[in-house]
Amino acid sequence: MAQNGSHPVWWKDAVIYQVYPRSFADSNGDGIGDLPGIIDHLPYLEKLGVDALWISPCFQSPQGDAGYDISDYRKIDPLFGTVDDYETLIRDAHEHGLRIIADMVPNHTSDQHVWFKEAMASEPGSTSRARYIFRDGKGEQGNEPPNNWKSVFGGSAWTREAERQDGKSRQWYLHLFDSCQPDLNWDNPEVRTEFESVLRFWLDRGVDGFRIDVAHGLIKEKGLPPCTERATMVGEDDDKTPSDAPMWDRDGVHEIYRSWHRLLASYPGDRMLVAEAWVKPLSRLARYVRPDEMQQTFNFDYLLCRWNADKYRKIITDSLKAMHEVGATTAWVMSNHDSVRHASRLGLKDAGARPQGIDAAHEQPDEALGLRRARAVIFMTLGLPGSVTLYQGEELGLPDHTTLDRKYRQDPAFFRTDGEEIGRDGCRIPMPWSDKGPSLGFNDTGELWLPQPAQYKNYAVSVEEKDPDSTLALYRALLAARKKHGLGTGALHWAEPRDHVVEFLNSGIRVVLNCGDKPISLPDGKILLSSLPMEEPGQLPANAAVWMTETTD
Ligand code: GLC
Ligand code: CA
Questions:
Q1: 325 in active site
Q2: pLDDT at 465
Q3: Nearest one of 273, 392, 397, 385 to 332, comparing CA atoms
Q4: Residue 484 has pLDDT above 70, yes or no
Q5: Which residues have C-beta atoms less than 6 Å from ligand 1?
Q6: Scanning 92, 165, 182, 348, which has the fewest C-beta atoms within 10 Å of its C-beta?
Q7: Above 50 in pLDDT, residue 106?
Q8: Nearest CA, atom 12, ligand 1
Q9: Which ligand is closest to the CA of 69, given by its number?
């Protein structure tokens, strides 16, 4: 087991389960999941066999971007509960052997944050405005935005303030995301001091770590030079580096993470930071997890990888190498609240592609094929050394809602692109806990902030709990075996490469994934777990995977 001094470091091989609170479980029937809902389901999560929960933001927020627009970092939004509930969650989770990772959003606040309200009410050039990024517009009347930067969600990254009462010129403020998410000015020491204090506030309450939202965005290039492309966060799997974009991955971000590293190190219990950094290439990503910075950074190259054995092998090899060079482990991930669920992506013709949402007008994924591949790919993911982050519902094999009507859409990206981008609602549908009831056990009232598709009934926890061949049963078995054999802290050894096959050894377990559409022969050994019933001895069907032990006994 990984050691820090004399004790094991829990996060190195941890399996982290992402809870998206508004869609996890709703205790009071208002249609939105909440903290008591999470607390009620801790036994389920313990039984699943994960080590930690990453809780997406539930801080006070007008919910302009589903909570990623925070108006008070020290309060819990009444939609989700109270600070007391959060403390109960931490305490109860710890009793169930689960750590809690909070989601911290330092790149921007809500436009309803007291700082931004003060800034809007104050003069250009004031200290209140210096906490954000205000600029005069271009052109004689200042009618043009200060530069050509585009928001990640579409449209300009600048919004002009409304008519001023004092008749002074109206400035523009920067928002890399929605206009309700003004970017903070991290060159301002006051911003740094405030966030250190916010981190302490939650560390004092016992959180075990933080996921850092948009970790690559905090520092902008001096002078805000023009940018040729839309500030998209998603690189395709072509290794193109966006590091010349003046808003991403500036060297200055690292000093911030060094200071947070020191802050966390002053607390007991191996607290950790995990970066959401859409950064390429891997050598740049690795800079976020140098020994004095964060502990982990999500591996989005892995999430973005197509269903292709050569590509998987390359990304795994390159990732392990890049992280090893800085002494870090890799944090594998396949789905999250910003991406079409992988069970759906793997059922597309371009299998594994990451569209910006799917609706009825788009190619519909092949649900059975997607599920079959999702059940197979988790053998590879959980077979790798390092840590793994699961997204709620993937343990059920949940697909996206791919036909959600436009009238239900809530993602700001949908509105800012005039519907050109469908957005992320399809992967944020409330969880099906039961095959009975109007909201499939999400609550008792049937209220739902987003409707569930009909087929979610078939994936309900109540159904899968009864079925020994369900995806849930498979995840439980894999997680238990991963722990038992110490795969998370093991080392990977490749087998001789074969077409369409990913095959490696880790801690006495042989992982074989068949990405092809024909059966392949398996080496000798005993099959420990398989993604499908094995029809012919010694043969691994198409789109399937096994874990084997090396011995034949
Ligand atoms: C991150 C979050 C995403 C959010 C954005 C702006 O990418 O994961 O959900 O919309 O940051 O905070
Ligand atoms: Ca609720």
A1: no
A2: 98
A3: 385
A4: yes
A5: 65, 68, 105, 177, 213-214, 276, 337-338
A6: 165
A7: yes
A8: 68
A9: 1
